[in-house]
Amino acid sequence: MAAGAGIELLLNQGAGSTAPLCPHGPTLLFAKINRREQETRRFYACSACRDRKDCNFFQWENEKVSVARLLAREEFNQSRQPPFTHKQYVERYQYFVSLPQVKRIFCLDCQLLLLPEDWDKHTSHQQLGNVFLHQLKRPSKLLLPLENKKTNAQYLFADRTCQFLLDLIVSLGFGKVLCVGTPRLMAVGKKLFLDVTIFRLLYLLPDGSGEKCVARMVLHELIKLRQFEKKNPVMKSQLLDIDFRYSQFYSEEEFCHYNMFNHHFFGEKSAFEAFQTFMCQDNGVPIIMVTDPPFGGLVEALAHSFKKIAATWKTSQKEDDELPIFWIFPYFFEPRILQCFPTFSMLDYQVDYDNHALYKHGNSGRKQSPVRIFTNLLPKTVILPAEEGYRYCSLCQRYVSSANRHCEICQACTSKDGKEWKHCHICNKCVKLSWFHCETCSHCVLRDHSCGGARSGCFICGSTDHKRRECPDTLVQNKITEKSRPHKRKHFKMNKKDVTTKSEQQAQAMSTGKKKTMKRITAKSKRKKKRKSK
User: Fold this and answer.
1) What Rg do the C-alpha atoms of the chain give, in angstroms?
2) What tens digit of pLDDT does each residue of 444-502 get?
């Protein structure tokens, strides 16, 4: 991005009903700020996809859209929706279960449970036959993870992480869990299946090798598995996710097709009503929300949706309590999360993923996961496992990693990355051991840094002390100059009857600089044509 320019999300600037729609629901309003030219331009873009390759929707705020374009956009949005409604998926699932095992086929290419009438359409696709009923209880055994970092990011929890979360939720006494985009757990081998031997399944991989398939499960699945085994205490869960493929396996009460970036429920009103019922019924049963959004997502948009979820839950509460939340996100987003949720605190527990190249469990290097748990629960109530190197700090009254030493000056265990930090007396705060205080930059930095480099700050006045939203110079924020208004592209009108030669057709497609040259060529060809006609 050019210096002096920035993009900012504008929330509460317009209702979702007035925002244009893309395949992922109502779009979000952004502001493009140019400090040099003192102008602001607003535009709508997709809420879920930050990559234009995934969703290329773009529209200026004041842009006039023709009726034909609106109809074409609506037709395109409809074509990107699931082929069946949730109700139809449930009916297909019930029919699929009633089939004999030899007729239960799953299309690996389309990620679809096939009914007999679908077989002819998928003959050239890779298929998995003889699907067990037990596999249908664990859909993540069949579905491939979507690993787009900015949209889906279905990275799979490590075994120890998923089991820790489940044990923690049970120990805290929660009877209901709202899973918002929680990823899957991948574990190789038999460790997960010691207690449930009936789920030990072996089938061929698409390449024909007879290797054992990797076992994957969702936190939502773990809770459903507890219900299947009739374990106590009894727990209920509901999954909200943008991956509509789960509609094939869960009822409308168990799964809602949902976009967490704009709080949009797809399909009919029944999805929102099922969510509302889950949040408000069984008033005496404690409920917690567990969410693991894509790390490339916008924190402000996520927080806005989570607050709406909490507001729905509050409608059934007599006391003014907060909805308990576990928000799983990298530790370097702590300032932005605390800005949206001041009552949150970050736990030292390292959340690991088995199918992520960097966010794995380790003691050194980039393999050490930076992902943490942010929560509004009291940190001292969340007991971290001592066998994984966590200890209780009596001064901070919370569990911390073994390398996180208590700083007497800061009066806190200050490490964020699970390693030992040191205190800088000039900055009056703790920093990483690899950092040093630079007199030129007046703050602690890495040794191989370039002095005078750009720091994050305000896009309006250039100050590093505050962000744009806190800037005292608010006159520029809503200023839309004549330059910032959308301009219509100039089209050169041309009469098709006048285009008689190939030279003239090429001239219309050329840039303005080349048209002068082509004009002389065209005039020459006309003179030759006149001489031939005489």
Assistant:
1) 29
2) 998 888 886 555 556 555 555 556 556 655 444 444 444 444 444 444 444 444 444 55
Q: Give the separation between CA 308 and CA 262, rounded to whole angstroms.
A: 10
Return the number of other C-beta atoms located less than 10 Å from residue 505's C-beta: 11
| Non-local CB neighbours of 383 within 8 Å, separated by 6+ positions | 168, 171, 399
- Where residue 528 falls among pLDDT bands split at 50, 70, 90? confident
**Helical spans, DSSP H, in 377-428:** none
- 173-207, pLDDT tens digit by residue? 999 999 997 644 322 222 332 232 222 223 333 33
Contact by Cβ (8 Å): 239, 256: yes
Closest listed residue to residue 29, CA positions, set 339, 304, 266: 304
Strand-by-strand arrangement of the 58-60 sheet: 5-10, 28-34, 39-45, 58-60
Mode of pairing for the β-strands spanning 236-241 and 176-180: parallel
Q: What is the pLDDT of residues 66-109, one digit of tens each?
A: 999 999 999 999 999 999 999 999 999 999 999 999 999 999 99
Residues 6+ positions from 495 with CB-CB distance below 8 Å: none
Structure tokens at 266: 């797809």
Cβ-proximal residues to 443 (8 Å cutoff; 6+ apart), any chain: 427, 437
The amino acid at residue 208 is G
State mean pLDDT over 127-148: 79
- What whole-number distance in Å separates Cα of residue 246 and Cα of residue 243? 7
Give the list of residues 6+ apart from residue 188 with CB closer than 8 angstroms, or none.
214, 215, 354
Say if CB 327 and CB 371 are below 8 A apart: no
Q: Which two tokens stand for residue 98?
A: 């009633």
Helix or strand run (H / E) with residue 277 = helix 270-280
Task: Answer whether 154's CB lies under 8 Å from 293's CB.
Answer: no
The CA–CA distances, whole Å, from 375 to 323, 336, 429, 510 equal: 10, 14, 24, 59
Report how far apart, in Å, the C-alpha atoms of 398 and of each of 277, 323, 342, 347, 412 are: 35, 21, 18, 8, 10
Among all chains, which residue has been given the structure tokens 């929300």? 289
